[in-house]
Amino acid sequence: MATSAVAIRPTRAAPVLGGPPDPPSPIAALDIRHQELVLGIARAHAESGGAAVVVPHDLGSAAAYAHRMAVLSRGAIAVCGAPREVFSASLLSDVYRHEVEVLSHPRTGDLLVLPVGNGGRVDIRERPVG
C-alpha cells in the first residue's frame, strides 16, 4: 500500500510536540470547498510559523498546498522534497504499482496526478501489498 505524507513548511515543532494532539480529520470525506478550506487553514498556520502535517490520498491537493512532502512506499520514505522534485510519473507509477501521468494545470500551474486508465481491465492475479 502506498501513502503520501505532506509536511506543509513545518518551521517550529514546538506547537506540534507541546500542544494537545489534534483529532484526525479525514479531508477526503469533505466536499471540494471544505477540503480547500481545511488545507488553506493548515498552510496559513504553517506560513505563520506553526507546523502542519497532512496525510492525504489526493496527490493533486497535496502538491498544491505543500512546500515539502514525503512519499511512503512499503513502510519507508521513497522520496522527500518539494512537490516538483517528488512527483515524477515514473516514481509514482512504481510506488502505486499503477501507471500515472503528472501534468501541470493549464491555468494555475499546480501539479495534477492522474491515473492512466486501462479500460476497466484488472488482473485478478494481482494481489495487494499489505
UniProtKB/TrEMBL annotation:
Gene3D superfamilies, from UniProt? P-loop containing nucleotide triphosphate hydrolases (3.40.50.300)
The entry's keywords: Translocase, Transport
Which domain of life, per UniProt?
Answer: Bacteria
InterPro entries for this protein: P-loop_NTPase (IPR027417)
Whether Translocase counts among this entry's keywords is yes
What name goes with this protein? Answer: ABC-type hemin transport system ATPase subunit
Species whose genome carries this gene: Nocardiopsis mwathae
